[in-house]
Amino acid sequence: MLSFIRRLVVLLLLISNLPASATTYELPDNPGDSLVGDQMASKLYTTAKYEDTLVDIARNYDVGQIEILLLNPGVDRWLPGEGTRVRLSNLRLLPDTPRKGLTLNLPEYRMYYFPRHAEGEKGIVKTFPHSIGRVDWRTPLGRTTIVRKTENPVWIPPASIRAEHTANGDILPEIIPAGPDNPLGLFAMYLGVRGYLIHGTNKPYGVGMRVSHGCIRMYPEDIEELFPEIEIGTPVYIVNQPVKVGWHQDTLYIEVHPTLAETEAEDEHGTIPKQTEKKYLARLKMALKLIQHANNHQMPVLDGEALKDALQMHNGIPVAIYKRPAMTQTDPASLSIP
Fold it and tell me: What distance in Å separates the CA atoms of residue 43 and residue 171, rounded to the nearest whole number?
């Protein structure tokens, strides 16, 4: 019943084009499974209006800018055109991290929040798009915690950021007061890594891109929803997982995103230029290692074409690449190395 209600909410949003809040999924019944979302609506679309841009649509459906461009490679970012079908994502593989607190998967530009739930109660995960640090201001990786929360934060720009702005002819004041024009937005959560925050923004069109000085920026409506749910001490896992592999029942899926190192070399639609062929092969090597690990350290007979397409497109759409035979999960005939 709950799944039906969530599908209905998604469909109503598609009809009304109202701004969405966090995308919420039920956790898999099998703790070893990783695919979340609605199998009955694995391909989800909305229709652009005359005045829409892809950036508008991304925010309406809680999607980041790079994500919606990868999902719609043939659609113009600024003028998609009235009546154009715009694809949205409704299936995801959970990152390979503990399912508690917050996980930020940087190549995905997406956060996963696992609220606490009582024993025997169905767990959920909420996801939000976010921005990450630019190449020259990288967001740090690793495990940390939320150490402080502030509503209506005041921003004191570090000397390094003020110097950068000054070099570009933009003089920043020493203190920027709280309010809608503050770059931190109206809510801020401070990480245990000094100088790094999860916060709102006064420039929401940049959410889902590499635009910050290392902090994590969220849509204003998203952090407003998340802020009261997060407790001091909540664990935060910041990871770099451009390739994710996981099960849904007896089917193995792969989900591929542009790697952080390649993002600047690729075009806005994620196409792999010929000069990055070596990086594609490195991505393939990474995928095969994850696949083998997921399948009890045995290499299954894969759908090679599906795997190749997923690695080349790297558009974040989960793709089925192997199905265990129905007779038994441990049938030796189901395992072989090509």
Answer: 47
pTM of the model: 0.84
Active site positions, annotated: 199, 215
With CA atoms as reference, report the closest residue to 37 among 26, 52, 49, 51.
Answer: 26
DSSP states of 173-231: -S-B-SSTTSTTTTEEEEESSTT-EEE--S-GGGTTSEEESS-EE--HHHHHHHGGGPP
Of 148, 146, 108, 75, which Cα lies nearest the Cα of 239? 108
Q: Sign of dihedral through CA atoms 112, 115, 119, 124?
A: negative
How far apart are the C-alpha atoms of 194 and 180, rounded to whole Å?
24
For the chain, state the CA radius of gyration: 21
Give pLDDT tens digits for 108-154. 999 999 999 888 788 999 999 999 988 778 999 999 999 999 999 98
Task: Name residue 216's beta-bridge partners.
Answer: 198
- Which residues make Cβ contacts (< 8 Å) with residue 194, sequence separation at least 6? none
Question: Residue 40's pLDDT band (boundaries 50, 70, 90)?
Answer: confident
Pick from 217, 314, 316: nearest CA to 266: 314
| Closest to 324 measured CA to CA, from 128, 32, 77, 2 | 32
pLDDT, tens only, 237-251? 999 999 999 999 999
Between the alpha carbon of residue 310 and those of residues 23, 287, 330, the distances in Å are 23, 10, 26
